[in-house]
Each structure stands twice: as C-alpha cells, then as structure tokens.
C-alpha cells in the first residue's frame, strides 16, 4: 500500500484558515473501536435510500474472511472512510463497503480509497475491478466514472435488483494518482504547531536584525490566532 506522507503545512485562502492534513489508506481490522461506528453509519445511510432487501452489504464477519482486504482511510490518524476488496479468484476483484463520513466528503478521501483498493486488487492478481452502487447515489457514480469505470450489465446477486448500478474498470490501464493531502478548516489546537512553524521561518531574518525573541514571536501569533472565517 502507498506510504504515508509526512510533511504538514498550512495555507490561508483569505477567508477561513485551512491546513494540509496527512491522508493514509491502509489495511486494518473492521472491529476497531473507531471503525465500527463508520460501518454503522454506512448501514444507516444506505438503509435510508434502499429497502433492506436491496442492501447488499458485507457484515464484520464477512470483512474478516480470507480473500477480503478491509481498508481504512485516516486523516491525521482519524478514521474517515472505509472500503473492502474481495478477491474473485478469477482475475477479478469486487469493491465493497465504500463509505466516507459527511465531514470528509468532497475532500478526496473517496478517491484515495478507490486508488488504494485498485492497488490492492492488482497485488491479488486481478485485472478487473467490479463494483455495485445504487441509482440514488449520484455522487458515487460520478466519482467512479471520473476514475475510469464504465457501466456494465448487473451481475451476480445484483442481477435482479432494479436499484443497482454495476460498473467495472480494467486495472491494466494506468491508475490515477493517490491523493495524500487534503484541506480542512483549521482547528484551535492547530495554533501551537503553526506558531512554532512561524518562529522557524522568521528566525533567520529577525536574528540578522537583532530582534530575535522566540517568546514574542510565538505570543504575537497566538494572540491573533482566529481559525474561523474572517470577512
């Protein structure tokens, strides 16, 4: 799987202060305390869109079966999304259990899960990735289309489900880049490390001017820290 990015920095857009965050996707257990709630959220989200008989989810036990790789997306260690890769054993793999929390939607987490899942499928020897989603999930369908997936006839357990949308992608085609950074609004507890970063940047110039005072530099930044939007 792709290694974690390590560097962090911040950026101001002129409105809200934003910061770069480390994004990782790695194989993990689905039974972790911060992962089980994501699976429940995914169930609640889907069952609000589909009748129970049209919901084709894998449960926790299924996700631990041989041939299944369960992936967790984390931003600075916080779990924000999941995906599973099921080895078909015939040169194909199926993408299952894709979910991204509301807070992480639109930030590239879904794309990162998709690219990492494809990488895992290749490691398993698959040359085709298949998936099923549903007609109401237009944002998911659009993401898959942007990722090179094409619509195919409904297959397997989805063949008789009129709400299902089935897609696949040839994994022998060049993969897209894996997103490793996202932007989110800055939080109050970001102030400390940002003050340290500012001090590092300013020190050479202030020392040349004979005005280097690390306490004063940090204090001035913290006194003016305002992570909310400024208008």
Structural features, described:
- The model is unreliable at 1-18 (pLDDT under 50).
- 30% of the residues lie in helices and 27% in strands.
- Strands 1, 2, 3, 4, 5, 6, 7, 8 and 9 form a nine-stranded mixed sheet that branches.
- The chain folds into two domains: 23-170, Gcn5-related N-acetyltransferase (GNAT) (Aminopeptidase), CATH 3.40.630.30; 188-223.
- Helix 5 (191-208) packs across helix 6 (214-224).
- The longest helix has 18 residues, at 191-208.
- A hairpin with a 4-residue loop joins strand 1 and strand 2.
- With 231 residues, the protein is α+β, with helices and mostly antiparallel strands.
- The protein is built from six helices and nine strands; from the N terminus they run ββααβββαβαβββαα.
Structure characteristics:
231 residues; alpha+beta; Aminopeptidase; 2 domains; nine-stranded mixed β-sheet; 6 helices; 30% helix; 27% strand
What is shown here, in short?
By secondary structure, the chain is an alpha+beta fold. It has helices spanning 36-47, 60-63, 109-123, 138-146, 191-208, 214-224; strands at 10-12, 17-27, 68-75, 78-87, 92-100, 128-134, 150-152, 164-170, 181-185.
